[in-house]
Amino acid sequence: MRKWSAALLTIGLLTSAGCVTVDKADEMTKEEVIRAAEARITLGLSYLNAGDMMKARENLELAVQYAPDYYRSQTSLAYYYQQVEEDDLAEKAYKRALRYSSKNGNVLNNYGVFLCKKGRYEEAQEKFTQAIDQPYYYLVSASYENAAMCALSSGDKVTAKTYFERSLAHDPNRIRSTLQLAKLNIDEGNYSEPRIALFKFNKKYGYKPVSLSLLIELEKKAGNAHLVKKYANILGKEYPDSREYQNYINHDDRTY
């Protein structure tokens, strides 16, 4: 889930003896209610990231009490439930969010991710498609990427490739889509496109273990032994403790 960017209310508002309480929410304007809920969401997610589950739940439930019809109150609580493996409660929270915000692309996308993790692939793809189709939803590339990853999880590489391509059409800088699409092309025996894509990737970001590993795989399949050696040497020199290098030295048969 994306990083939340709400502004925190002052500490005094949250903790002092004269703090705003949920009981006073009826006296607040809609904007004040949303700000109060956002403050609790930010605090709750901070506690969640720090591993303090009790305080995380307390603040996220307070956000829901402040603004039960605010989609971020519900999706944040759903995310908490996912982290503590209370999937039934997480799904109920997502469904409440959809009841209040049925055309919200963020809700649809996040619910799709949840469904995919549960192995409910068709339902997940339906939600991703609905998210992408929403007007004024600007995270289209992320939803296409999520749809692609979900297709991979279900074993549908053809659909995954199509969605990765669409993700990159909307945002050419998406790293996961770039690398996953390169891998799928390599698996298909198409070496030119991923070679160019990985060259551009390395030029922009520098050599990374995963990009070097893909280049080693590509050039080995293409029969370019000198390039395999070149990239393997770079991988070993720059990332000797990486999983990719350990896999290379432990599993490579060096028969090229």
Specify the structural class. mainly alpha
The general outline is: elongated
Supply Rg. 23 Å
Strand content range: under 5%
Largest sheet: none
**The CATH architecture of the largest domain:** Alpha Horseshoe
Report the average pLDDT across residues: 91
The low-confidence parts are 1-20
| Number of beta-strand segments | 0
Helix content: over 70%
- What distance separates the N and C termini? 43 Å
Question: What number of structural domains do the residues give?
Answer: 3
Enumerate how many helices there are, as a single number: 14
String of helices and strands: HHHHHHHHHHHHHH
State the CATH class of the largest domain: Mainly Alpha
Q: CATH superfamily of the largest domain, called what?
A: Tetratricopeptide repeat domain
Can you give a write-up of this model?
There is one protein chain. The chain has 256 residues and is mostly helical. The protein folds into 3 domains: 1-101, Tetratricopeptide repeat domain (Serine Threonine Protein Phosphatase 5, Tetratricopeptide repeat), CATH 1.25.40.10; 103-171, Tetratricopeptide repeat domain (Serine Threonine Protein Phosphatase 5, Tetratricopeptide repeat); 174-256, Tetratricopeptide repeat domain (Serine Threonine Protein Phosphatase 5, Tetratricopeptide repeat, Alpha Horseshoe), CATH 1.25.40.10. Helix content is 72%, strand content 0%. It contains 14 helices and no strands. Helix 2 runs parallel beside helix 4 (71-83). The longest helix has 21 residues, at 30-50. It holds the Pfam family TPR_8. It comes from Aliivibrio fischeri.
